[in-house]
Amino acid sequence: MDAVGKREGHAPLLSTRGSVERPSALDDVEAQPLHEGHRPGNGLSRGSLHPSAADLHDYESAYTNHRFSAAEKRKLKQFESLDYLPPNSSVYRTWLKSQPHGLQWDRFFMMASIGATVGIIGYFEFMLIGVLSSAKFHSVAWLIDHAGLFVAWLFNVALTLALVFLATWTVVHIAPAAAGAGV
To answer: d(Cα 97, Cα 81) in Å, to the nearest integer?
Structure first.
């Protein structure tokens, strides 16, 4: 198999969206299903190990990067997303080869430091939630005694909505990546 996903003398196994020749559309007309219920576009055709043209449009070689066409780039610009670097790029592998081999105690120290810091922040956040809940409870109890039930209910709803707004604004404007975490 060569680098673009073709086998010698056969149709390509995987398409790279335009860079590999695809079988003609007539191949689909002559295609015989492998089993009952098979239709072109949902599996292999003609009882062979080679996909038909209708099957190829969604597959790419696992060994090459996808190159976006101008139409694909226009469509992608319509959506907003977070961009992440690939986890295993050639730049990273080159950098990794240049690093000295050792016991990596510094990596474990850093992981322990991060874990301890996250734990301490979580504890203080837990304590802050307890303080806010206690203050809200005592404020509502005081308002029930001095201003009436409706005023206490209105204060409770207003404070809750203010905290929800603060949390929503923070996630939307400061940390959108936290939205998927249930925040």
So the answer is: 32
The pTM assigned to this predicted structure is 0.43
CB 142 within 8 Å of CB 148: no
Residue 60 structure tokens? 């790419």
| Beta carbons within 8 Å of 61's beta carbon, 6+ residues apart | 3, 4, 5, 14, 15, 16, 20
- What is each CA distance from 36 to 33, 55, 99, in whole angstroms? 7, 17, 56
Nearest Cα to 155, choosing from 147, 167, 168? Answer: 147
Q: Kindly report, residue by residue over 127-150, the tens digit of the pLDDT.
A: 999 999 999 999 999 999 999 999
Q: What is the pLDDT of residue 77?
A: 83
